[in-house]
């Protein structure tokens, strides 16, 4: 207890001398337990100076005959390596001797320390693995460490360029035949997690894990089924042979094992076995917690999308569990799954809507009720018998809270707008809603009655357009735009609301240490952050207020601020690129950080380095720039109308400097001209593409004319991973990633990324980016582009070619 207390208290440098002498005596005690504890505590509280005095004792302790003392010294060395690496690295010979020890714990700690000493030397690490993989490691714990270090070496060296074999893979396979379960599992897990593992390499590991599935030890069953579950995400066929063994785990007493077994079976099962699997799962669902149920529901949804012909049995299963007891997240997962199946499988629409109608009769969650009512309003009128849904919707008007009642009124109005035969009955129901005690419900009923009561066909078309129009802008962007809108003769334009769902923010900059620059730098930082968060309308309003830019037409896109100066410079400048159909306006946000200088007539001189399509037509200099106050200077270029013109510019900040008296703040009348070189500025393809995501990429893709599709293949050369290749292409195109397809699974040899955006001229463009990587890390790419304008598809390919 005394040793533990001293170690946890960690005396200060003034107090440590009091206990150091006593601990050094204990290091030479005849009691091994005292020696081990003294070593641990001394290494925790000592500094570099004292460590040199006791280094000899520590080196002797590393090779001590008593494993407790030796292990204590090795563990202390692991901790000391962080603070005094030079001293610990001198113990290499002693640590190597400890690795050959017969004591399992000493060998384990010795190997861990030896690896940390050599971890930055790839050749030494490869030699370490090569030497120890010949069978000199007896400790199962040390063997597990060696397997991990071997995987590290394999990933760094890569497969043989001629034979394709991996170095040291034979050692991993030999570990699958080890007598210790932990070593066998560690080797199997390591093989399954290797990058680009082949089915031939995977087979022995899967065989071993299959044996673990029938083990009497719960921990082995859990480890095996969890690993197989991960493998099934990328290579389900490799795991299919284990299905019979996993089916027996559905009734396992450990619910975690049973859940993993079910989700794995759902990923690897075939179409013929779906019905049998559903019967087994039905009895299982009532025995597990909601968090496990959600995992099962998501797996069932994936299975249904994989085998659409089985939608009836899977939809019935989802509807049955929807009626059972459960929390909000569980119910939401089921409803979301049914909504996805309705959207992706047309034949499942009517049965899915019927199940959801039954559910809202007893639904206690407002969010789910409104979500289902919205779906009924959109999809119900398109079914073969729309009238059967009216009863369910109107029941919500009578029985539910105000939020649900308002949603039900909107759903009723959609039925009335689309189904002419139901309109008189719908109007009667809406008139009853005029006496509701909630303002929102009454207001909606009044509005929809006004829309539906107009007889002309044109009026009915307007009603449909109003009721079914999609809000294709993020709500948070719409809210900000409405807050910034100032009432005037010019009406609010919904098309001007930015559609970018992932705005890029300027990285926060640190303030300099100089007191004179602190306030000015803070102002520059606020300007950069404000420039990144300003809405599209704010930029448009600013540009329209400048007469020379007012005739450029409608602003298409404003970029995030791009820094043109280093962080600790006299003048902080960033640029925002505003793109018009026939012009590009560059807005330079400039901040003076020198308190003794007042800058006047600040402008940016630009020279075209690359490109020929740009012609400078206007400049708007900044009249005055005192310290700490950010101002804007503008330069406008003309380019061909609607063209994706690329260019690179050199830019120089030019100004007139006047000295400022620090005591009075007055500037001298006389001054001098000066200039400051800025970093080069590029107009890239991404500047002409507006990020605009789509809710359903598949439907959006199929809605575009296949004649506009342009497909080509490219070689991207050598890449570290597919993730690097996908990141590089998405950065070049500057488009919105759809359905989180920018994340590549770790073991994937191929991947498809979906991108969406709107090209200059507000033309929708969609991209399917398919990449694959071989054993030499050579990446090939297939790029398929569809657009509302075939010429835009060609431009996207030209961007990649360039």
UniProtKB/TrEMBL annotation:
Name of the molecule in the record: Coatomer subunit gamma
Region (Disordered) residue spans: 493-530
Organism of this sequence: Physcomitrium patens (Spreading-leaved earth moss)
Coatomer gamma subunit appendage Ig-like subdomain domain ranges (all copies): 538-684
Biased composition (Basic and acidic residues): 499-528
Family: Belongs to the COPG family.
Domain Clathrin/coatomer adaptor adaptin-like N-terminal: start-end pairs: 1-454
Highest classification ranks of the organism: Eukaryota, Viridiplantae, Streptophyta, Embryophyta, Bryophyta
GO biological processes: endoplasmic reticulum to Golgi vesicle-mediated transport; intra-Golgi vesicle-mediated transport; intracellular protein transport; protein secretion
Residues covered by the Coatomer subunit gamma C-terminal domain: 686-800
Gene expressing this chain: LOC112293717
